[in-house]
Design goal:
This protein is an alpha+beta fold. The protein contains eight helices and eleven strands. It is globular and about 55 Å long.
């Protein structure tokens, strides 16, 4: 497998962090999120669209009781400008990262600092809940197909963080990395990322990828320090 591109990461998001329902038309792919957040609720264009197509997309999302939310991917400058003209504002710019597992697994986590667990333990759910990751996002993990797991990070014999990782083809992708508030700035994010890489390599994957908001400065700094490369971006537009 060649190094992941933005498009392969977009595809991996849908496979490892799936919406509750997909509806694909000539113009759009719609995602029904059932409260699981923007990634599983945004519509994406399947080519050039007209203003009328956007109005129809809004109507479909309203039928699902969702706001009009569009994901703008690399190269979709015309759609971005079109939505801006129609009163849609930017929401949550996101950066995509990837790295070969062969490189990431050179930095192995300390012994007994992380444990593989599927399904997630109660302590992991508590850490996620404290970080705003509730049952709707846990349901996303549950419905993902293919190899997947979670990892519990521990420090001082105490649950310190958690992360979910799924595999799509030769690409592993991490989601919902959350560190307990008392354990932040302790290196737990690095431990969980490298532990996820070790698990994914053991499953036969070749690359690790992820998506993080630009506003999450600490996460972007972490992934850059691990040698992960920026391979693309996306952002959302939502009606003002």
């Amino acid at each position: 497998m060649t190094f992941p591109t933005a498009q392969t990461i977009y595809d991996a998001i849908d496979h490892t962090w799936p919406a509750a329902e997909y509806l694909t038309t000539e113009k759009w792919t719609f995602r029904r999120g059932t409260g699981g957040g923007s990634r599983v609720s945004a519509a994406t264009a399947n080519g050039d669209v007209s203003d009328d197509d956007i109005v129809e997309a809004e109507a479909q999302m309203m039928r699902w009781s969702q706001s009009g939310l569009f994901m703008i991917r690399d190269g979709e400058t015309d759609l971005d400008q079109q939505l801006e003209r129609l009163g849609y504002v930017i929401k949550d710019p996101v950066t995509l990262y990837a790295a070969p597992l062969e490189e990431l697994t050179q930095q192995r986590p300390p012994p007994v600092s992380s444990f593989v667990s599927w399904p997630p333990l109660a302590s992991q759910k508590e850490i996620w809940a404290d970080g705003g990751i509730g049952p709707e996002r846990l349901a996303i993990m549950g419905r993902a197909e293919g190899p997947k797991t979670t990892l519990l990070g521990r420090a001082k014999d105490t649950p310190a963080g958690t992360v979910y990782v799924g595999i799509s083809g030769a690409q592993a992708m991490i989601h919902a990395l959350e560190v307990h508030v008392d354990m932040r700035r302790s290196g737990m994010g690095r431990i969980l990322t490298t532990a996820a890489a070790v698990w994914a390599k053991g499953q036969g994957a070749s690359y690790l990828s992820l998506a993080t908001t630009d506003a999450n400065v600490a996460a972007n700094r972490l992934y850059s320090s691990l040698g992960m490369q920026v391979v693309g971006q996306y952002r959302y537009r939502i009606k003002r």
